[in-house]
Amino acid sequence: MRILQMSGATETQIDAYHAHVSTGGARYQRGRILEHFYAYGGNWSIGELANGLGMDKSTVSARINELLKSGDLIDLPKRRDLISGVLIRPVALPKVQMELI
Fold this sequence. Notes:
The protein is mainly alpha-helical. It has helices spanning about 1-20, 25-40, 45-55, 55-70, 95-100, and strands at about 75, 80, 85-90, 90.
C-alpha cells in the first residue's frame, strides 16, 4: 500500500512540474534569476538567491540546474554560504556574458 501512495505522489509531482513548465512559470523564474545576476553580478548560492528573490530554495535549485544545463550559468569553486555558513557550490554568469554587461 505504501508503494502505491508514493507512486501517486510522484505522478502528482511530475504532473505539477509539467503544468508549471507549460504555463511559462519556469521561464519566468529563470528570467528573474538571470536579472538578479545582471543587476548585481558576482556569484551566488541557491540559498542566497532564494533569500534575495523571495523564492523557495527547491524552486531556485531546479531553475539553477536548468540554467547550468543551458550554459547560461556556470559552477564556481566551493565557498561558504553568506547566510548559513555551510560549504556551497556558487554559480555565476559565464565570463563572456559578464563582459557584455
